[in-house]
Amino acid sequence: MLRSALAKVIDFVTDHNRLTLAGMVLLSAVVLAGIPMLDTESEAGANASAFEDIDRVQKANYVADHYDTGDDSNRTIKTVYVRQKDGDVLSKPSLLATLRYQRDLLHNDSVEAVLHDDGVVDIANIVATGLAGDPAASLDEQITALDDADPTAVEAQVESTLANQPQALRLLPDGHGPSNVTATDRRLLVALNASAVTGGEATGGETTTADRVDAALYDTAEDYSDSGVFVLNQFAYDEYNSHFFGEMVWLVLPFALVLILGVLAFTYRDLVDIVVGMVGVVLSVLWMFGLLGWLGVAAGLALIVPVVLVTGLSIDFGFHVFNRYREERAAGERPNSQDAGIREPMNRGVRLVATALVLVTVTAAIGFLSNVVNPLGQIRDLGVAITLGVIASLLIFVTVVPALKISIDGLLERVGWSRRKRALGHGRYLRPALSKTVTLARRGAPVVLAVAIVVGALGALAWTELDEESFQRSDGDVAEWKQQLPDPVGWETHPAAERLSHVQEVYQPATADDAIRERILLEDDVTADGTLADVQAGVETIERRGVLLDQPGVQSVTSPVTAMQAVAQRDDTFRAVFEDADRDTDGDGIPDRDLETVYDAFYEADSEVAGQVLERTDGEYRSMLVQLAVNADYADANEAVADLEAGASRMEGNGDRVATVAGSLGVNAAVLDAIVGGILQTMALALAAITLTMAVAFRAMHGSATLGLVVSLPIALVLGLVIGGMYLLSIPLTLLTALLMSLVIGLGVDYNIHVGDRFADERRAGKTTFEALTAAVTGTGGALLGSTLTSAGAFATLALVPDAQLQSFASIVVIALLTAFLVSLLVLPSLLVLWERYSPEAVTTESAVEGIPQD
């Protein structure tokens, strides 16, 4: 049924090539009309409901429902940084520069309208008001006092400020001592009214208040960049992203084009075929864009992934179409008509390869579409985008490319230019090299299979050893040789990435509001004797591990103990109850007994504060909450969560309570674990679906379901080798690399199908096992070699980009392509030999008239 329908389509394409081209031009115009509708800004988020069964997510939701966590602060802090690598940011010129920066910033209407009463906090202000002798001195008066002061007096005032104003140390790098009156880094904090900054949304092209404030902070900092002033807000990141994309295109594109065209020149050895093939590649990518636009699927910046993958797969399709056409023309008859000498070989060649391309498309789509169940919207959209691109490639390379090839070759041969070319794999040097894999299968198939199983198993075992990270942080370092390349290819560095890395390295968050707020929820018997002592012991465990924010004047822990101690200092009645509950025990200042009475008195003394750390429902105390300001970010999540879990375990005491890390870091780590676990399930389902599809397809096409099973087995080996490669190259499991694990299935199945299908084709034609294998690995194997060199080379150029995530992405795809190629030529032939030797099934033999053998 499938072969019959394809045969009719191919007959029409080869018999009516000009009509086919005209029709595809019209259809392409319709499809490409969807490109203007493409959503390139939307970044689909996660499906929150997909994570509701995760314990930490449930606990985080419980905290949100039952506690006032104090997140609704009336101010938001914007940070401005000052850095002078070879200078002193505590010198008079630097302090003056930031005072003038403040003056220019506060003259901005948007900033002035939302400025909080706390205003701007800067060492320069503290020093200048000290020099002016008036803590309430205006900004202009501060500038005048500092400008008029002698540098020696300024240095003395800085020394006094650091010694007597501990909060000033919060504005300096972590570990800066009060006796050190010089520094290369400092920061100033701009306090804004939170409700005014975050309220409202942009409409009708207008900008929000937050955008206008960020723009003022960024633009004013740019005016003072010579003094080392900078900000790291959305405007800085947008400029960096734009710069990064431009540099990436200029660095990668020339190398990729030279490499691709070089490989195409080697494999095709014909300019016309290169041009026709690239037309098919470009059309495939454009069709993908158009279909995404019509279907309303979000693209976003991550669209580079499907573009590169679809480019590689469509180049692969082109190799098979052209190579098989050349083989058929070389072996075919020579009719009188010049057009017939082109049309008939093209008809036979496309027929031979078409159902294999359909099978590749179906199985690859299974691998890619397995991501539609992923809770992350971006990953779902990527799977859909790649699938649409592969389908578009199939359509283009069985219609437009053959029709265009017939048209051009017919025209050139009518003017006397012979278009007969030798297929790759049949050359003097390559054919003997490829044939050696058949010799290996002939002499040692069982050994090859045993080695493959051992190597694949070892690679798969490395899965448990892979590091898990939310994302890979780039430090902004760029190799010197990349910067020294001639413009515009040479990489011009941008300071944003290096600045971000430096800031994260040298600073702790300036305030508890700036830090990530982690939470530990304790449930069950929270009134048992010793509960508060266990809570305090857990907090001390976390403190000893160094994960908490440690800034002068900043409270990094809010727990039932700290909250009660604060209320006891100002409420005599509660203090008496609080102390009485500890008086007859260990005298450590923490109540050990009669805790329900203590909690009741706590609520009576200050119910608002008590409600932030204790849950009382219907008079029953059901849980308590510990809030922690941590000195960590999402790149350090694993280590930070491990430290928090150690403290939570200590809070559980003897098992009377359950303590759960329920803050953003803990939830993030749990979600990543769920996604990674989901990837394993997705890969297993995709492998099962592909195996079943292959069995059914090979049964229908070649009369053997077991042959389809044998051809699908190497996919698991490719997965194992990719995982082993990730381990050896220290590539972590992130959301991106976890996605690629399922994409590897779509990449790994391609080569095996072509070799296995060609083998069955040759066996049906009456060749022996080893004759069929030789034809498969030299004919189809030659096309696979060209495809591998082109695609792997193109992806390898992405490793030039100084970005850890892109480098990991490129490395995984290159490993997948190379291993898939090697497995299809080294392992699959041995499997086919063993199948022929031990399987009760055999390939169905059909007449050449009734059945067209498939590639």
From TrEMBL:
- Topology with regard to the membrane? Multi-pass membrane protein
Top-level taxon of origin: Archaea
Pfam families xrefs = MMPL (PF03176)
Q: Where does the protein principally reside? A: membrane
Q: Where is the SSD domain?
A: 275-407, 673-834
The answer on whether this UniProt entry bears the keyword DNA-binding reads: no
Q: Where in the cell is it found?
A: Cell membrane
Which keywords does this chain's UniProt record carry? Answer: Cell membrane, Membrane, Transmembrane, Transmembrane helix
PROSITE patterns (UniProt xref)? SSD
Q: Which InterPro entries match?
A: MMPL_dom, Mycobact_MmpL, SSD
Query: Which regions span the lipid bilayer?
Result: 248-268, 275-295, 301-322, 352-370, 382-404, 444-463, 674-698, 705-729, 735-753, 773-800, 812-835
Q: Which GO terms describe its cellular component?
A: plasma membrane
What name does UniProt use for this protein? Putative exporter of the RND superfamily
Cite the source lineage: Archaea, Methanobacteriati, Methanobacteriota, Stenosarchaea group, Halobacteria
